[in-house]
Each structure stands twice: as structure tokens, then as C-alpha cells.
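Q: A reviewer asked whether we had any structural model of the full assembly, not just the individual parts. We don't, so I'm hoping you can provide one. Inputs are below.
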Amino acid sequence: MAKALVIYAHPRPDRSEINGPLFETAKAVQGVTPVDLYAEYPDFDIDVDREQQRLVEHDVIVFQHPLYWYSAPAIMKEWQDLVLEHGFAYGKHGTALAGKTFMNAITAGAKPDAYSQAGLNHADLRSLLLPFEATAHLCGMRYLAPFALFGAGRASEGNQLDIHRNAYDDLLKALVADRLDFEKAAAAPFLGDVLDEFLIKTGAM
Amino acid sequence: MELLSEAFVYLCAAVIAVPLANRLGLGSVLGYLIAGVVIGPVIGLVGSETTEVQHFAEFGVVMMLFLVGLELQPAMLWNMRKQLIGLGGLQVAGTTAVFGLIGLALGLAWQTALALGMILALSSTAIVLQTLNEKGWLRTTGGQSSFSVLLTQDIAVIPMLAVLPLLALGSYHGGGQHGDQAHGGGHGGEALAALPGWAQAVIILAVIAGIIIAGRHLLRPVFRFIAEARLREIFTATALLLVIGIALLMDFVGLSPALGTFLAGVVLSDSDYRHELESDIEPFKGLLLGLFFLTVGAGIDFDLLFGAPLLIAGLAVGVVLVKFLCLFALAVVFKLQGADRWLFALGLAQAGEFAFVLFGIAGGTGVIPPDLLQTMTLVVALSMLLTPALFILYEKAIAPRVVIQTERAPDVIDKKGRVVVAGMGRFGQVVSRLLLTAGYDVVILDHDPQTIENLGRIGIKTFYGDATRPDLLHTAGLEEADLFIAALDDRDKQLMVVEHVAKTYPKVQILARARDRHHVYELERAGALLAERETFESGLAVGRRALIALGEHPFRARTRTRAFRKHDINMLENLRDNYNDGGVDKSYIDAMRAQSATLFELMRAEHAGAGEGRDERGWNPPPKGDATL
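A: Here is a predicted structure for the entire assembly that you could use as a starting point for your response.
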């Protein structure tokens, strides 16, 4: 059993259509510690000791957030700047995070084809998220492909949100149960609503 | 109907005269006396029946002593014992002796001289306490000493009540004059007269012991039982029954009823029903005493006054002068300083309302001859009439001068700093501690010794002095300072000090604590770089927590609070030009109303989720219809 830390950031929880419900899903999963950064630190005065302690106590760290300007909402950057200290997260003696697993769980406004060389953004999702990946590597963590929902602006209209919530539930439970195939998950362009190919088949072992 | 019409006259006089006298600073006792003078000698509405009424009204004294007893918790008396026995005891004994000797020198019988001495030693608790309270002097050393002496005097009345009848001159004793049942100490014990002396003593001791034991163990359950019945008027009736019962019992065994009720009061002073008893008896006492003073006023012999006005005025001034000298000597012995010494000596220099009560007994037993009694009643009343003048003398002529000489001199400021903070109250402390912990040298001024001592204990050095005084600000080093923080509590002083610093030290930046929006404008005009409303940010903090408590997301609560804050500060800016020094005019009110309406609409629109609140500028999702996304 692994312990997962879901760090969530959304500056307008009252207007969130996807991330809010997704965070509710995360809260309900056993073995997941949910953290709402904007709720805990509305003035951005992040408690570094407490956050580092949380990191130490967990095996998997998930950044759950909407994709803002190809990155995370501001408080998440502040969190990285303050919590991932030299001597803790990186540097000669900074090995507190080594061996842990890190991933983003994002919602993107544009449709999937916008995230390609030929598309609107002239780059694929993994390329755009490289700063997170590089951060994870510098801290000695394994970086998995992002769990992503595209076209988030319209996702609440059909049953897409429910499907995505179920997938998120499956993903978090698999992470806690150590059933995610890290090799495959690290190599994928992104993790979508169909997770079967990334799960370790218990019966086959 | 005669009773009703009499009551109407007395009440009418009291209702008109007492508030007027109070308004003029004369105190209620003088108000009653004056009312009595008006309805008696002046317009003759009441006549000889006042003596009868007076005997009835004397029961107010018994009630008063019950209340005095209730106020005197044994523990409190014990704590004050030094003051009471030392200062108070010496005042009563010393003044009695001085007046007694003067009496003897004037050829009075020793009994008369002693009686007069005791009576004149007392001061007016009613007038003095009320004045000290009103002027806020009760907490000063002079006020505290005065209070101790008054308390001693109240207690000393009891032995005086007992002693006066014993002083009765032979020729008057048994002369048929003792109709005074309420104070029939020493001569009322007809019931026991047949018994031998030792048996009388045993019975008297048994009665006193009985009151103490019954008060402790019997009265409390009785009061609890009555209180549980929740019949307010029966509780009052029980309280009255207790006082009257004890008075009768004491009279029966030949002791002072006042002494008995006083004792009962002390015994009940630490019971749960103390406050209820107090509030029940208080109005009866007040009215009866008032009636008593009315009758004293009505009984004043004006022929006597106008027959020898100079003699009586001279005697009154003489009494005040002698008392003043005795008190002043005591004040010196007990090391009262400067203004306190004067307050103490001038404030207590009059004779008191108890004199009228004691005169009643002294007259009844004949220890003071009737002519002298009439004269002295006038003298006492006049001396009380002089009291407000003495307080005015103290306040206007003496206190201002003495205070400057003897007030603690400002500290020598041997420290320099880039910042000078004036006022180390709740506000100044926060600012100063922030700056000090940030490592800046701060010169802090305050004028409250207690604050300075407390801060000294936690290692913050504060200099004593009045920050509104230019010389102190100069020695605080404002010449070389960069920043002055005005954090005084007093609105006007704050304005004064900002104005002075802005004019005298133009290079110094001034940050000021403001009481409200108008104060902000005033301080800015006086030269403050910034004036911050002292409760604005803390009010917002609580408001924000309230939004969270109502279920809003903390970040949303923050955003909305900031929007409100921004709007309010805008309003402060926008209304600045509408604010005139004299206050607000219609344009100010209109502008304010318009601004508030805008804000209200904005916040409401936001709440409804319309998302058009440009004040908030939080992240908003892009419109769903945008095809480029």
C-alpha cells in the first residue's frame, strides 16, 4: 500500500466545473491525503515545515490543477518555490523526495489536437509540462504522464465529467494499491479515461 | 387625605430641588435641605408636624447603616485596616479632640464639647463620594485616602450613637424628651431595667451573638426559601422585616438599633443575597434619609440666621478651617504628596449629614442645649454648602499648579533612534514591537507608569512623559529621526501632536493612528503622511472569518474581502474633497450614499454568480462560445 498526496489548486472554487468535483472524488479515496492550497493558504503564507512533512509522509505526489498558461495556478508555483528547498528536495543532501512518484492531473481548455506540433499550441502536452518533469527528476522522483481532460469548458455538458471522475477514482486507487505500471505510465503521452493498459493485472502475477 | 397632601408637598419639593442641586454640583443632601428650607421657613407649607415626621424619617439612618454593613465585607475591611485605623481613626479622634478643646475653651460643659467634637469630626460621605466619583478622582491617592476616612467615619457613627446618650447632662436626663425610639441607645432598655446589671449584660451579649449566629446560619436558608418562591415583593418585605425586627430587638434590650442592623449587614455582606438586599432596601433608605434632610431644612430657624449672620457664617468658616488644618496635618504625617494632600484636606473639610442625625439624639438627651443645637445645625448646613466651592478651589487654583511641580518628571531620554513612537497603548505596542523585532532603534514615549512598568518587565524600554509636550518631543530626538508614529488614544491630542511635529520637524515622516474616516482627513490635513483607521483592518479580518464560517471557500472570502477593502479605501479617497473641517454636508452624504450603492450592487452581483464583478478580478473561465479554443 502506498500513500498518495493530492495537492489541489483552483483560485475560483465557486466557478470550478471539473476540478472541484474531481477533488471531491480524490477526497473519498482511502489512502489519499487531499490538500486544497487556496483554502489552506489564502494569503499565500505557505507553512513550509508542514508541507515538507506531508511530502515525507507520502509516496506519490499528485498536482491536481487546471492548466493556466501551460502551467499551474500561481499558488502552486509559490508552493514549489518555498517547499522544494535546497537541502530538502535537491542538492547534495536534499534527498527527502528521492524514489517517490510525481504526476500532474490537469484539465485543459482546448481540445486534444491543439496539443501537437501542428496544432494551436505548436507543442504536445508533455513538452509543455516539461518544467514539472524536470523538477521531478531534479528531486529524484519518477515522473508519470499527466492524467488529462481536454476541452474542459464543455466537459460538464454530457456525461464526460462522470466518466472522467470514475477514471480519476481508478487511477488514485491503483496508485494507492501499487497497481499502476510505472514503466508504461511514464512513457505515455498522457493518461486518459481508459486506464486498463496501464494497470498491472493481478491475476497474471 | 392629609397624609397624601403632606406626601405630595414633600415629594414635590424633593423632585424639584434635588436634581437642580445635583446639576449645580451641590449634591443631593444640600438639595433636600434647600427643599426643606423652601417648604418650611420660606413659604410655610409645613410646620410643627415636621418633628414627628423627622422621628419617622430617622429610621432611614438605621437602614443606611444596614447598607453600610452590607458593603463592608470583612475581608475588605481587613485589607484596609491600616488606612482605616491609622488615617481614619486618627482623623476622627484628632478632630474630635481639637473641637472638644475649643469647646472647653469657650466655656462649654465637657460633655457638650465632646459631643460637638465627635459630630463635627464627621464629613459628608454623600457629597464627597459623589464629587470624587464624578470628577474621576476616586482612584487617585488623595481620593483613596478620602474614601478610607469616610468609611471609618461611617463606622465611627455606631459607637457615637451609643456614647451620645451616655453623655446626657444630669439636668436633662429623664426630662421627658426622649421620644427618639430609633436611636434609643442606653436609655431605651426599660424592659430589662428590673433585672440586675450582670443579667442585663448577659442578655445583651446573647442578643448580639444571636444576631451573628442567626445571620450566618438561619437567615441564609430563609432568604433562599423566599427567593425560590420568586415573589419579588415578598423578598422586599422580608428584607424590611429583618431590618425593623432587629431595630425593635435592639431597642428592647437597650442597644442602638443602628448598631444591630449594621451588625446584621456585615454578617450578610458575603451572602449570595447581598445585592438583592441592597437594591431592595436602597430606595427606602434613600427616601427616608431624603425626608429626614427635608425636615432638618424645614426646621432651620431663619430668625437665628438673620439675627446673627456674621456669627454663624464665621462659625461655619471656622469649622471648615479647623477641619482643614487637622486633615492637612494628617496628610503630611501620612506622606500624601502635592495635589493629593490638598484634595484630601479640602474635600473632607465640611461637616456631614450624620451631624443632623446625631444632633437629633444630642437634642433628645439634652447633651447639647437647644439654642446651640439650632446654631450648629445652621453651621453644619453652611459648611456643606461651602463644599462645592472648596472643590472648585482645588480643581481650578490648586491642582494645576501643584500637579506640575510634583508630577513625575519626564524621563531623561538618553537614546536616539530613527523612529519615535508616541503612545504605547494597544495600537502603539503592535507597531513598536514590529519595528523593534525588525531591528530598528525606536524611541517610545508613554505617560502611563503602569504600561511602562509592564513593558519594562518584558524588556521594552519606554520613556515616561507627555508626548504632547514640545520639549519632550525635542529631547526624544525628532530633529534627527526619520519617522514619527503618532499612536495616542485621545483624538484631539493625536491631532495636536501631529500638527506640532509636522510644523516643527518638516523632514520627519508622520504615520498616524486614526479613530475613523473623519479623523483620517483631519490628521492628513494636520500633516500626516498616512493615517490608518485603527479598527478597519481588524474589522475586515473578522468579516472575512465570518464569510468562511458561513461556508465560503477561504480564498473566495479573501478575494471578496479584498474587493470590499479596495472599494472602501477608494471611498475614503473620493470623499476626501467632500469633507469639510466642520463635519459633513449634503454633498458628502450624497457621495457616500452613491458609493455604497455601487458597492452593494457589485457584491450582490458577484454573489449571484453573474461573474461581472470587475472589482474582484478573480480568475474567470473563458466564454464557452469562443471558437478559437
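A: Points you may want to mention in the reply: The mean pLDDT of chain A is 93. The interface with chain B takes residues 11-15, 17, 38-40, 42-43, 68, 73, 109-110, 114, 120, 153-154 of chain A (CB under 8 Å).
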